[in-house]
Amino acid sequence: MLRFLREAAFGLAGWLALTATAAAAPVTVTLWSWSPVAPTMAAMAAAIEKAHPDIRIDATIQPHTAYFTAIKAAQASGTLPDLIGLPPGAYTQEYRPDLEPLDAIAADSWGADWQKNFAPALLTQARLGNPKGDTQFYMLPQEAEVLNLWYSRAAFARAGIAAPPANFDELVADVAKLRKAGFIGFYQGGGTGLFDNWVFMQIAAQTDLADLLAAENGAAVWDKPGMLAAAKVWEQLFTRRVVQPGALSALQYPTGANLFAAGRVGMISLGSWWLQETHLSTNPALATMSGYGKFFFPALREGGSASPTLGGVDIGWGITKNAAKSPAVEAATKIVLKELISGAGEQVALDQLNDLPAFNGMQPSAPLSPHLKALYDTYIQELATANPHQIGNPVVFNTLAANLQAVGAGTKTPEAAMQAVQKVAAAQAAN
Amino acid sequence: MGVWGLKAPAGSRGRAPGQRTRVLGAGPVASALYVAPAFVLFAAFILFPILSNIGASLVGAHGRPGFANYAVAAQDPVFWTALENSLIWVAVSLILEIAAGFALAVLIELYLARGRAIFRTLLFLPMVITPSVIALVFTTLYAPDYGLLFGLFNWLGLADSFPALLGTPSTATLAIIVVNVWQWSGFFVLMYCVGIAAIDRALLDAAEIDGARGLGRIRHIIWPLCRGTTVSLVVLGTIQALQQFPLIYLMTEGGPANASQTLATYIFQTGFSENEMPYASAIAVVLFVLALVLVAVEYGLAGARFAPSSRESRDAV
Questions:
Q1: Distance between start and end Cα atoms, chain A
Q2: Best residue in A93, A94, A194, A249 for a mutation probing chain B (most B CBs within 10 Å)
Q3: Among the four residues A21, B18, B45, B194, which has the most C-beta atoms within 10 Å?
Q4: How confident is the model at residue B1 (pLDDT cuts 50, 70, 90)?
Q5: ipTM surpassing 0.90, yes or no?
Q6: According to the CATH classification, is domain A145-311+389-430 in 3.40.190.10?
Q7: What is the pLDDT of residues A350-407, one digit of tens each?
Q8: How far off is chain A from B254, nearest CA to CA, in Å?
Q9: Spatial CA neighbour of A275 closest among A364, A384, A197
Q10: A23, HSE (Cβ side, Cα atoms, 13 Å)
Q11: Domain B72-316 has CATH 1.10.3720.10
Q12: Which residues pair with A149 in a beta bridge?
């Protein structure tokens, strides 16, 4: 009897210990994305876990292409993680059937008037491509970006250039001066379709902003006179030797960004995310951005205005329906989403100046150098009124990039290229 | 003899030496059972994906079944560019790899007195380098303004005439094929080395006595006797060229202006970048059929024989 009681006591103790361990075990939230970069994401996850010891984040960051291949396979096999990083538009729409509507979750997190926390352009982009009548959000933005041109102050000084070009003719002249001084005047990673499209869109924002915005939303207006004018300016980037020789085989990342950071390039088309170099480099010119300045694509005519601001969502997050596998995971996923956008996670990303915060009112916790603060504050102001910069349809996106490359290579006229884009856009709009 | 054809140890108990063990017998049922595991794996991992892909390619707009995706491909200029480039890849890669592989193997096996293993290893080395590293190295090598080749042109005073090999539609595909040839030629060399080493020395000696020397010996003796190797390499090279993806994607992403797009990269672009999976499946079916046809033609031209007949061997000498 005594032996039985002793064994029963041991058994009970063991069961209680197991139960206690299970109760104390943190809930794991799985998260996949291509951005922020892995070290930043690891720091963000650590900060969130510190704020919520009952939550563990299993984050997987992969390069852009590998990530989107992986989540497509995961979608097909029903194994999507709880949270997925998403750009707005086509990608979000593709995964919409597997995503939870986020309006109610956002209201729980930030109150009924939660939308006031985001710039209107960001909210518009977050719902880009929703079916007619569907006003739900399936992704919420964490980081935002503004497109612009950057210049190297040191290169400009060596080439005897006092200020960024104010018009297109000055841009051509400055590139020649930079080339003569031994620099790549204007680096264009023309092998990267995204940056071809973005430069073209910055030009088109000057020539025909209304049609550009309509085209981003799927309208077949690529052959309008303003769009054709933009294509002709794009052609001049090659015929007037603005971009470097062989630009169509060059990559913006890593080559262009590395050359720019190394001081070999005078000007390059990047955006607000370039500020992240302040955290990645020990070079004072980069660490404080003192060696770099930004400007918008210069006026196409003398006395005109530079391109209006283009920008919007860089990355947002969607909660997949797999997160509802248990109430504990579902609750933890909602907490992680909030922390990624407006809490400890985003604070870490912002302190590394990974990009601009999508959530209003967030500030870097450490003081910035005066030049860096001026850049950052200007970006925040510009973001508030930025025009969207995403082409919603990926087929149109790829067609535009290929045709811009053909114009750059001289194998197509601007007219033929824009008609080709128009034809594809019209077919896509009809589907 | 044991179950697997091994001799039983002397003095072991059991069947008499030479007696076969028939576990399942030799009838049609037993044959089917022997084949079944391999067939199940083949069906699960080869047959099912192929059939599934064909099925996916027949899903048209709004889920309607039909051949709409194939009709779209017929009207799609990028598809035709990709198809043309795939054929260029097969033809140019094979010609260069076989020429370089055979020539180097002959040099190593017949004319090199020492250091054969070192040369074989050095030539094979590119095969073990990951394509991403190769792509990065050659992209930098080709780069205008700061690349090694540009430096050479600059040194010669020809900087202004340096061609942007990857940035020009007419040269992009060939520039990548050269990289592929550089990477794969070592494999061809190795295979030909094995082929040449397997040739009966007596045949070579007899040929020499009969007056076959130098190029004549290579052309009339060694080349015909390496036909089995050549047929294998043609088939392997065809499949490799058709499947090539990483070098193209990493060096040009199929550009500029889709000029270096192949069927393999176009499948990826349409399926994963443009979310047009049924269309990508249709292109994949075309690639599959193309591979089958090319390999069938190659076998047909080779007479479906890997090795020369004994008569051809005799004729060779």
A1: 79
A2: A249
A3: B194
A4: very low
A5: no
A6: yes
A7: 999 999 999 999 999 988 999 999 999 999 999 989 999 988 888 899 999 999 999 9
A8: 9
A9: A364
A10: 6
A11: yes
A12: A269, A295
